[in-house]
Amino acid sequence: MIFELTPSGNPCFSGIHPVLADLLRAVATDPWERYPEGSKRLLPSPSAEEDLCLDWQDHVQPGLRHQFDSDRKMIADDLKTMFLDLEKVREDSGDEGEGFRLEIPRDHAEAWLTTLNALRLAIASDHDLGERELAAQDPTDLSSDRGSALMQVNFYALVQECLLQIMEDEPGE
Amino acid sequence: MASPDLLETPETDLKEELDLPWLVVVHNDPVNLMSYVAMVFRKIFGWSRERVDKHMMEVHTKGRSVVWSGGREQAEHYVQLLHASLLLATLEKSR
C-alpha cells in the first residue's frame, strides 16, 4: 500500500491489497453495534462527581455521539469511492495483482482520524488489549480473534500515522 | 447606603473566586497514538511543540497531566473538546 498526496493535495492510498481494502471498509463499522462493550470507552465519565456525570450524560454525550456518527457517515461515503485500479498496479510494479485506490478529501482527514481512533479504542477495549501487546514487535497470531483484533488496531494506527503526517504541515487553529 | 449595582460587583467576583480553579486532566491511554494526542493538544490549546512534548511526557511517565486550570465553564468546554477527540480527560476541583 502506497501513501501519497495527489496534485490537489488530497491524501491518497493506492495499491491497496484486497484484504486491507476490506479492513478499510470496516472503518465505517458502527462501534456501538459491533463492539457494544468496547464502545463504552468512547464516551468516558468527565468526573468523579455524580451530578456532573449525570448532567454530562444528558447534555454533552448526545452531541458527541451525533458528531461521531456524522464523521462515520462521511467516511462511509468516502469509502464508496474506493476502486480497483489495475492500471496503476501494472504501471508501478509490473504485477497484475489487484490494488485498490482511495483518495480522501483533505478536509475529511480529521473525521478519518477520529473515526479510526474510535474504532481502535472500541476494538482494543473489547479485546482488552493492553500497552504491552500494542507495543509488541513480535508477529501477530492471526489465527485467534485477539490476534486479528490486534492486527486491525495496528493497521488503523498506520493509516492514522499517514494522515497525521499531512496534518502536521498544516497551520494550527 | 450602597446602590444595588455596587453590591452586585463584589458578589460576582467572590463567585468567580470560589469557582477557581478547576483542573482539566488528561489521563494515559495506551491505544491513542502519541502523534495523535500531540495533534489534538496543538489543535485545542494552540501549544508549541515544546509544551506539547512536556505534557505528553507527563502523561506517559505519571499517567496524567493537568493541561488547563481555570473557571468551571471553560474547563467543561475543554473536557468536551478532548472527549470529542476521544482522549481520556476529566474535570477536577483543585484542592
Question: Could you characterize the architecture of this molecule?
Answer:
The complex is a heterodimer of chains A (173) and B (95). By secondary structure, chain A is of the alpha+beta class. Chain A has one domain (2-168). Chain A contains eight helices and four strands, in the order ββααααβαβααα. Chain A has helices at 18-25, 31-34, 50-59, 61-79, 86-93, 109-126, 131-135, 145-168; strands spanning 2-5, 11-16, 83-84, 100-103. Chain A starts with a strand and ends in a 5-residue tail after the last helix. The model of chain A has no long low-confidence stretch (mean pLDDT 90). Chain B has one domain (23-93): Ribosomal Protein L30, Chain: A. In chain B, 58% of the residues lie in helices and 19% in strands. Chain B has helices at 4-19, 34-45, 49-62, 72-84; strands spanning 22-27, 64-70, 89-93. In chain B, helix 2 crosses helix 3 (49-62).
Give the number of helices of chain B.
Answer: 4
The order of strands across the largest sheet of chain A is 1-2-4-3
Biggest pleated-sheet summary of chain B: 3 strands, antiparallel
> H/E element string of chain A?
EEHHHHEHEHHH
**Helix run count of chain A:** 8
Q: Give the tally of β-strands of chain B.
A: 3
DSSP E strands of chain A, number: 4
Portion in beta strands of chain B: 15-25%
- The multimeric state of the shown protein is heterodimer
CATH superfamily of chain B: Ribosomal protein L7/L12, C-terminal domain/Adaptor protein ClpS
Descriptive key words:
heterodimer; A: alpha+beta; 8 helices; B: alpha+beta; 4 helices; 3 strands
Give the SSE layout.
The complex is a heterodimer of chains A (173) and B (95).
Chain A: E1 2-5, E2 11-16, H1 18-25, H2 31-34, H3 50-59, H4 61-79, E3 83-84, H5 86-93, E4 100-103, H6 109-126, H7 131-135, H8 145-168
Antiparallel strand pairs in A: 1-2, 2-4, 3-4
Helix pairs in contact in A: 4-6, 6-8
Chain B: H1 4-19, E1 22-27, H2 34-45, H3 49-62, E2 64-70, H4 72-84, E3 89-93
Antiparallel strand pairs in B: 1-2, 1-3
Helix pairs in contact in B: 2-3
